[in-house]
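Q: How would the structure tokens look for this protein?
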Amino acid sequence: MPCRSDDDDCSDAYRSADRATKAACDIVRVVRDRGVWRDVVNGLSKSTQKWIEQHDKADADRLEREAEEAKAKALKKRALGKLTNKERAALGL
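A: Here is the predicted structure in token form.
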């Protein structure tokens, strides 16, 4: 049965999963930043390694999407900046 937003148990479970995911991400980031990732990754279970790979891909996809959205927003801002007040009014802006 799908979770409902008014279900406190479900909300607590999502919050707990979010905290656990953030903790895992923080640990991976620190280990990588310290330059010991290669030593650590081999000691992790295959399922944990797979989770990290999937999470890294999701992060990369998110960053790419955010960069594309920022470019589109900047392009829109530049384009709108070229319009006169009369043109803006005609477009309902």
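Helices lie at 8-33, 37-41, 46-81, 85-91.

The mean pLDDT is 88.

Upvote if useful.
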